[in-house]
């Protein structure tokens, strides 16, 4: 199994790159942001709870997010592995993910691929995305900046944990989409 943690600040291209990795390696993507947005649209109790955090650019509490992830992993799938997009974002979640992958998939995280993009480009990309996506958290510069600050404050420790395990690889996230994908593919292929 190939289990990838796709890592990078909001606007770094995780969604786009996840799509290409999925096709290349027959993986299933689990995006906690997408799962929250789905629940918000359906107005489920989970969605209503998550909305109050998401619209301020804050993180949803760890336990709520982790329970949702476990539910998703329990669904049957014939994929070769998973891409975790948007999870883990804290050191608690990183430790949870190790346990969850062990218990639910009898496997382990293979690699943490980190897309590196400077802040100025992130803000520009997110403002542009907000114009078409209708995402409230992509439409105001202050909320966007808060999401980026939250990301660096809490997720730096996630990178540190994967570094300690020798599983952390940074890839430049600025450039042609296909070129960035090729660099990511090469890192995954090195695992075999
Ligand atoms: P994303 O689409 O990954 O940028 O996620 C959108 C929003 O959903 C984030 O700004 C958080 O409020 C929330 N969210 C997504 N994943 C997580 C997570 N792993 N832990 C806490 N909150 C999350």
Short description:
The chain is of the alpha/beta class and 192 residues long. It has helices at residues 14-25, 32-42, 45-54, 62-73, 91-105, 119-133, 141-164, 177-189, and strands spanning 2-7, 28-31, 81-85, 111-116, 168-172.
**Residues in helix, %:** 55-70%
Round the mean pLDDT to the nearest integer and report it. Answer: 93
Please count the helical segments.
8
Order of helix and strand elements from N to C terminus: EHEHHHEHEHHEH
Region (NMP): 31-60
Binding site for AMP: 32, 37, 58-60, 86-89, 93, 135, 147
Main location: cytoplasm
Pfam families: ADK
What does this structure look like?
The structure is a single chain. The protein has one domain (2-189): Rossmann fold (3-Layer(aba) Sandwich), CATH 3.40.50.300. Helix 1 (14-25) crosses helix 8 (177-189) and helix 2 packs across helix 3. Helix content is 58%, strand content 14%. It is built from eight helices and five strands. The model has no long low-confidence stretch (mean pLDDT 93). With 192 residues, it is α/β, with parallel strands linked by helices. The structure holds adenosine monophosphate. The site of adenosine monophosphate has 17 residues, from helix 2 and helix 3.
SSE diagram, text form:
Elements lengths: L1 E6 L6 H12 L2 E4 H11 L2 H10 L7 H12 L7 E5 L5 H15 L5 E6 L2 H15 L7 H24 L3 E5 L4 H13 L3
Parallel strand pairs: 1-3, 1-4, 2-3, 4-5
Helix pairs in contact: 1-8, 2-3, 4-5, 6-7
Catalytic activity: AMP + ATP = 2 ADP
Pathway: Purine metabolism; AMP biosynthesis via salvage pathway; AMP from ADP: step 1/1
InterPro entries: Adenylat/UMP-CMP_kin, Adenylat_kinase_CS, P-loop_NTPase
């Amino acid at each position: 199994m190939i289990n990838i943690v796709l890592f990078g600040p909001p606007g770094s291209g995780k969604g786009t790159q996840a799509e290409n990795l999925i096709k290349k390696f027959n993986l299933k993507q689990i995006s906690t942001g997408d799962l929250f947005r789905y629940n918000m649209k359906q107005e489920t109790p989970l969605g209503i709870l998550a909305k109050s955090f998401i619209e301020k650019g804050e993180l949803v509490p760890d336990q709520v997010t982790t329970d949702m992830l476990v539910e998703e992993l329990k669904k049957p799938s014939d994929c070769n592995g998973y891409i975790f997009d948007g999870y883990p974002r804290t050191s608690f979640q990183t430790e949870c993910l190790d346990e969850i992958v062990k218990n639910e998939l009898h496997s382990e995280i293979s690699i943490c691929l980190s897309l590196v993009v400077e802040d100025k480009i992130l803000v520009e990309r997110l403002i542009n995305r907000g114009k078409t996506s209708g995402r409230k958290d992509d439409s105001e510069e202050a909320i966007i900046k808060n999401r980026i600050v939250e990301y660096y404050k809490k997720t730096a420790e996630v990178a540190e944990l994967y570094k300690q395990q020798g599983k952390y690889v940074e890839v430049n996230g600025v450039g042609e989409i296909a070129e960035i994908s090729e660099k990511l593919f090469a890192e995954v292929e090195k695992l075999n």
